[in-house]
Task: structure prediction
Amino acid sequence: MSRVEQAIDGAVAEQGGALIGYLPLGFPNLDTSIEAAITMARNGCDVLELGLPYSDPVMDGAVIQQATTVALAQGFRIDDAFTALKAITAEIDTPTLVMTYWNPVIAYGLDRFADNLAASGGAGLITPDLIPDEGAAWIAAADARGLDHVFLAAPSSTDERLAQSIEASRGFVYAVSTMGITGARSGVDSAAKALVARLRAHGAKHVGVGLGISSGEQVREILSYADGAIVGSALVKALMDGGVSALAEKTQELASGKPNRGGN
Result:
């Protein structure tokens, strides 16, 4: 069992579910992004998901695009991600995944990327634009190094595609709660619950739901049927508007939505 799966199982058993927090590396600068990731882990995140800034983020909403644009403008490079991961994983035991589009991995070199990811303490990759049909090379490289490979499933996915995503994923299956780009929403799409039910029917053991979650109440709603609630834009906005202290407060508020948080 992977470190991510162990962390999710532990969070489900102890607190009713896992909080998975996303931030882009390099925002507002590399040192602060390292501090921010550690802060999220120390304030209630059970798994971290750190984004690799990319010039064409087709799935990202306005808040995350703004943050990654800042990181790239300051000269962020892929090697900076490994520097950050080493610093983060030296301070915390929280399993830390990298979220990245596939082109940067190919441009960097698949085996080189996998080697450096493992050496820096990373737990694996979430690859939003890599489909299982085209993921064999990455899956082989990841498995050889004990890294997780997380694939996405959407409400529009066929049953065949869901089965492929489950088979290809190690760590968890990332269930996209609503069609469209990332961004905090006042309500989480009802399609998420139906999607998780379909994934369960096909044998998925670890399912995280993301896109649109912005409050502890929504975390609680998601964790009534999924193993993990994935939050991105709400955390990025907190860091953007109020710095690391505001990020800590927002993480705590989101973590308060875990069903058994604090023995409740």
In short: The mean pLDDT is 92. The chain has one domain: 3-263.
